[in-house]
TrEMBL record:
The keyword ATP-binding applies. Signal peptide: none annotated. Keywords: ATP-binding, Nucleotide-binding. Coiled coil: none annotated. Residues 4-244 form the ABC transporter domain. This is ATP-binding cassette domain-containing protein.
Length: 273
């Protein structure tokens, strides 16, 4: 069953007279329990897609569904409630996920206020999450005094506080050493085993390899996907295909190609005009 569905999603930022088209016609279906690494060059639109999936932005065009709810059309209160109960998010800047003067444990408790879980259950889950991210001894320390890497790990624990249906994480290992990075990946995979679908923006190859599927965004579009170690290009609307950068020496952008029909597809061969 699909948990997330994007249908022709377009996001245009408008700042004064300038328009930036961050996403153009993104079609994407993510099934419940999948772990997806969102890859792509800087400025490709990865964070924008995460913000849209989190309901923090409404798409300029197209539609996004989370668990059957049309995110772009929900009233603000329903959307806020859905976000609090269904979505856990780790923003790129770890300190922005946390309330600096509250302790690590209190940050988790604060995230849990939206769900009906008993206090005892909540505290047990908080303790378990803090231990899983290697912060068992930091439960009582103010979040604002933790190091960048510790804040990043705490942010993941906070995002998972409610066992959300959807975890969205923007570069959750960017400030971590290898060992802490491994713990974070393990926690995301275990959460998926418990029913949390995860979409993780990353430049970290270890994260890309450890998650079940990769989706590469290039120039605001889904350009490629990887499953079980095999990479595929994605044929977009109107048949558009992005030639991956590693083949640009054979078919540089702007070059002309001949299309050769094969029994099960086509081949592109460089042609001189
Ligand atoms: N609030 C905004 N106002 C105007 N333009 C924006 C805004 N946020 C992002 N952009 C632009 O939208 C495009 C996509 O940005 P986005 O942050 O989604 O890319 P990204 O793939 O996450 O990049 P990175 O890997 O560097 O974080 C970029 O051209 C960026 O400059």
């Amino acid at each position: 069953m699909s948990l997330v569905r994007c249908d022709g999603v377009v996001q245009i930022y408008r700042a004064r007279d300038v328009e930036v088209v961050a996403l153009r016609d993104v079609d994407l279906v993510i099934d419940a329990g999948e772990t997806v690494a969102l890859l792509g060059p800087s400025g490709a639109g990865k964070s924008t897609l995460l913000w849209l999936l989190a309901g923090l932005l409404r798409p300029s065009a197209g539609r996004l569904w989370l668990d059957g709810a049309d995110l772009g059309r929900l009233g603000q209160r329903t959307l806020d409630r859905l976000r609090a109960t269904h979505i856990g998010m780790v923003l790129q800047n770890p300190s922005r996920n946390l309330i600096g003067h509250l302790s690590a444990a209190q940050n988790i408790a604060f995230a849990q206020r939206a769900t009906a879980r008993s206090r005892r259950q909540g505290r047990r889950r908080a303790r378990d999450l803090l231990a899983r991210v290697g912060l068992a001894d930091a439960a009582g320390r103010p979040a604002g005094r933790l190091s960048g890497g510790e804040q990043q790990r705490l942010a993941l624990a906070v995002a998972l506080a409610n066992a959300p249906r959807l975890l969205l994480a923007d570069e959750p290992t960017s400030q971590l050493d290898e060992e802490s990075g491994r713990r974070v990946i393990e926690l995301i995979r275990d959460a998926a085993g418990d029913g949390t679908t995860a979409v993780v923006v990353t430049h970290d190859p270890a994260v890309g390899e450890a998650l079940g599927r990769t989706v590469t965004i290039r120039d605001g579009r889904v350009g490629a996907e990887g499953r079980r170690g095999e990479d595929f290009v994605v044929v977009g609307r109107e048949g558009a295909v992005q030639v991956p950068p590693e083949y640009h020496h054979l078919l540089p952008p702007g070059s002309m190609a001949r299309i050769e029909e094969l029994r099960d597809g086509i081949a592109l061969r460089r042609a001189e005009p």
